[in-house]
C-alpha cells in the first residue's frame, strides 16, 4: 500500500506528498540539475543561479522574497549538489499557499537582474574564500577533482571567483532555461496538508511555466556529462604544501552508483570502518589506541552512474606515514579476514539504529523523500532499506573490500 500521494501535471512536473501529523510543513522544488550539468565555461553556474534565484522575479523583488515567508516565522533555503539543486521552505501548514506561490515564482520566473548579480557575486566569492581557509573542507573538493579529473563531477560546486565575476544575466538565464524545467523537477510536500489542495495550488502557480522539452534534459541529455566509469586511473599520491599546522589526508577511489547491487554492502562496510560511532575500526586504531588523530572518518557517495569512497583524517605532519600504515592495516584486515557472523549482525544492528535516529530529523527526511523520487522514481522506504541491509552476507562484504580497498586502487591526497 502506498504511503504517499503523487500526481504529474501536463507540463511534466511531478508533485509528491508524504502525509504526517505534524503542523510544520516542508515543501519545495528539487531540480535534476547540478554541477555536472554545467557546460564547459559554466563552472560554478549551478550554485551561482541558486544564489541569484533569491534576487528578484517577474513579480517580486529581493526584499519581498526575503520577507515572503520569514515574516511569518517560516524558513526559506536552498542548496546545490553535483546532480541536483533544491529550493525549499519550512512553514506552518496554514501558510502552504504562500510557500507554493513564492517557491514557484522563484524557480520559474526569476529574472537574475545584473545589479543584483554584481552584488551577490561578491558574497559567493567570500563564501569561496571562507572555504579556502578550511583545509578540512577544501581537501574533499580537491580529492573529488583528483578522482574525477577532467569530468564535471570533479568540479568545485562553488566555482572560481575570477570566472564568476564574468557571468551576466544572459548566462544565468541560458543555464536556467536549459535546466529549470517542470519536466526536470519535482515538487515535494511533507506534512499535514490536503494533497488535492496542494495540486490545485501548484497547478495555479505554474501557469506560464513551459516544460521546454526541446531543451537539453539533465541526467540523460546534452547538459549532463557522460558516465566517468567506476574506477580511476589507478593509485596516485599528491602532496600539497599549504602551510598549515595540521596535516589533512584523504585516500579513496571511485566506487558504486546508486543502483549497484554492492552499494548496500559498501554502506555497511563503510560504517564498520569509519562511521560516526566511536567503535568504528579506524577511530579505534588511530585515535583510541594511538592518540594520533582527533578526527578520522570514511565516506561514500553514490551518484546516478558512479560513486566515490574515501577516508579522511587530520594529524600532526610528522605522523602522516604512521597513520597511513595503520589505515592500510585495517583495510588489509577486512580484505583478508572475513567478518564473523556475530560481527556482521552487530554491524547491521548498529547501522539500522543510526538510520532510525536520522529519520527523526523531519527536514532531512523530507529532502531525502523528494530526492528519491527526483532521481529514481521511488520512495525512500526505511523498511525496504533495513531489509536490504539484513540481506548483506559475509561474502558480499568481502567482495566489496577486495574490489575497492587494494593498494593499487587507492589514490591519496595530503595537505601539509
Describe the structure concisely for a colleague:
The protein is of the alpha+beta class and 416 residues long. Helices cover 43% and strands 18% of the residues.
Contiguous low-pLDDT stretches (5 residues minimum) are 212-223
CATH architecture of the largest domain: 2-Layer Sandwich
- How many helices? The count is 15
Class based on secondary structure composition and strand pairing:
alpha+beta
Give the proportion of residues in helices. 40-55%
Query: What series of H and E elements makes up the topology?
Result: EEEHHEEHHHHHEHEEHHEEHHHHHE
Extended strand count: 11
State the shape. Answer: globular
Largest sheet: 6 strands, mixed
Full CATH superfamily name of the largest domain: Metalloenzyme, LuxS/M16 peptidase-like
Our measurement of the CA-to-CA distance between the termini, rounded to an integer number of angstroms, reads 55 Å
CATH class categorisation of the largest domain: Alpha Beta
- Could you name the CATH topology of the largest domain? Cytochrome Bc1 Complex, Chain A, domain 1
What order do the strands of the largest sheet run in, or round the barrel if closed? 1-2-6-3-5-4
Average pLDDT metric? 93
User: What is the beta-strand fraction?
Assistant: 15-25%
Radius of gyration: 23 Å
| Total domains | 2
Task: Please describe the structure with a list of short key phrases separated by commas or semicolons.
single chain, 6-stranded mixed sheet, Cytochrome Bc1 Complex, Chain A, domain 1, 15 helices, 5-stranded mixed sheet, 416 residues, 2 domains
